[in-house]
Amino acid sequence: MRYVSVYKSSMIRRNLTGLLLAAVVVLAGCASGDEASVEQRRADWDAKKAQSAASEKAPQLDAMVRAVTAGKPGAPADLKFDIGARPVVGVPLPVMVAITATSADIATLEVVFNAADGLQIVSGGNSARFQKPKSGETNLHTVTVLPQRDGVFYMSAVALIDTVSDSGSVARTFSIPIIVGEGGAAELNKPSPSVVDSRGERLAPLPAEESR
Amino acid sequence: MIEPPLANPRGRLKGRAFLRALPWLVLSALLAACGGGGDSGASSFQPPGGGGGGGGGGGVPGPVTLSGTVTYSKVPFSATLGQGLNFAASAPAPVRGATVEIVGSAGLSVLTSTTTNASGQYSVSVPGNTEVFVRVRAELRRTGTPAWNVTVRDNTAGEALYTLDGQSFNTGAASLTRNLNAPTGFTAGSGYTGARAAAPFAILDAVYEAVQLVLSADPNTSFPELRVQWSSRNIPCSGSSNPSFCDSSAAARARGEIGTTFFAGTSPRQIFVLGDASSDTDEFDSHVIAHEWGHYYQSAFSRDDSLGGEHSGSQRLDLRVAFSEGWGNAFSGMVLRDPLYRDSFVVGGAQQDGGFNVENNAVPGTAGWFSSASVQSIFYDLFDSAADGVDGVNLGFGPIHTVMTNELRTTRAPASIHPLVRALQLRQPSASAAIGQLVSAQQIATGSDDFGSNEVNAGGDARNVPIYPLLNTGVALRVCSDNTAGAYNKLGNRRFARIELANTNTVTVRADIAPGSSVAPSDPDLLLYGAGVLRGTAESLGNGVETLTVPTLPPGSYVLEVYEFSNINPGGGGRGDTCFDLLLTLS
Fold this sequence. Notes:
Distance between the termini of chain B: 57 Å
Shape of chain A: globular
Oligomer: heterodimer
Largest sheet of chain A: 4 strands, antiparallel
Number of strands of chain A: 12
Number of helices of chain A: 5
């Protein structure tokens, strides 16, 4: 229900539209080098900040600056996605992705998409390739998938980088969940199975291969 | 929802068998209540009245010895770089240092427990003629000195502890053997078709190796608790139009939306590990696990001033991030005695991997104090015995551990490459020249103080040096924040200034946007650190101006961090080059 309800929320809709507009603006700005586009980006940012109460900035910074999580090395790229409609079995579903390069050292950025069982990619291709993207540049790509049954299914996106300096290669992976039907939403939020032993300790037993 | 206690799935003791076992069950419950386990070696469990071996027959059965070997199916990387994990070559590897419990099938009480040795072997004395099963906990636990407490849990199942459970059997009257193996659950041509039992134990084994490396330098180390959270539902993700998706909240992590494999300095400390078979699993990527454990090490024993965030070896990073990530990469090589960092993933259903060699001395075009690749190269060359390039140093882990847990932890400068090198050169005078060669080869200044005051490598922007220009009272200092290297944690996003206090003072710093700098309005923010501890912040929504006041600061060196807020926004839209004039007042 969580994801389904998202599409009923006008507030989220505005955010969604803003995300895409921002991405389009960034893309246009990078492609043309047009100063007006840069100014538009600044105006967008100013608008966002103006909407924030002063009290909201501290938690935002808390999240960004101090809640340090140190992740594994990854390709210098980020990906965000937006699902254009409520996923329904048999109805083509556009999945819009915004791919952002985060290093100036990229010769080629390729994102390879793969749909898990239960989804079929029907248009948009299995990959998107960008030559020498600038740091901070966002590119948009749409993949359309066909949900084949109810459930939670994942489309994977793997960002592969060739660097200018040839300083090693690491990928960055992303999973895009597609929640089809009410059963899919319930499945997403259902905890994995576990048991509680005689001491009250929660355990996740796994079966052993055993020999004598 | 809390599930009810596990019903007895392994058959019940009935009638006379139950009566025979009853004294043992009572005793076992008492022993379990006393804690049991902990120290390595055989269990201290002893049956009353002696009577070794054999037994059985009528009355109370005598004890029998139950022993065996616990293994997990370890999946190596393909011999060919880039081809990922090779499941066809998986082979049993010992589960080392894990807790083994003998659980009575009747009441599911723990009859006794022990710990596997370095070969995965265990041996315990158990009551004869009793229905039991062997349970191996995904846990490394030791009390006393040294001490550790590591568990592998399922973050999508209420942090349930993973266990490997054997089948129920009757202990009979003679010694017996039960060997347990944790399988991968992978079937060639079909992918994962069974329970992925090997995964938690593969992770546990990488942690075991890391613990051993630290113990080699300090055998009395007391390791604070670590929880490793792994699930087959743990997916890599970034963000979507749904604001709660992959938002770093506890709820998102309980759904498996963890983003990537990462360390979290929570209480207790945690490492979250990817397990999504369709895109990225990390349980067999030992370097990835060891890298994150390297961050645990910093958090527990040293100091980590990193901002976290996305990073790679080709980027020019904030020097605190570069140091932390370079350390993590090099540490993984030290733990595994293998400089080739490999990280597997799945593309179109096929295994692939990427990575780098931390032994690599050349970092074309991006070498410096802001490069994680430079930092990892220096660390690994300090550690290893291979003499490659300018590497004539072979310190091993001990001297590195000494500096990481002393000078690096207490330096007034941010935890970064300069204080590390300075301390190592002072502690290792005979190797000082060779260390200097290593560092110079990465275009990093040597012979400096902790603040890298003689650093000349500006990373493409002359304003990056000096790294910590001195901010004196009454004299404006101009610093500029930009985003040419990226946002949030990249070189130049945040600039520094150094404040030296001779006396206890109230410190006030005002930042004003420099005349003609960028397009107003802008939003400067100020943070003040002393030895890595945040002493004050000023993060208002001020338009082109910010003021920080920190009362009664004791004498010493402090580092002021200054940035234009939009330049640290990972979502983009940064203002770019924005300069501020800083003015210091002491009272």
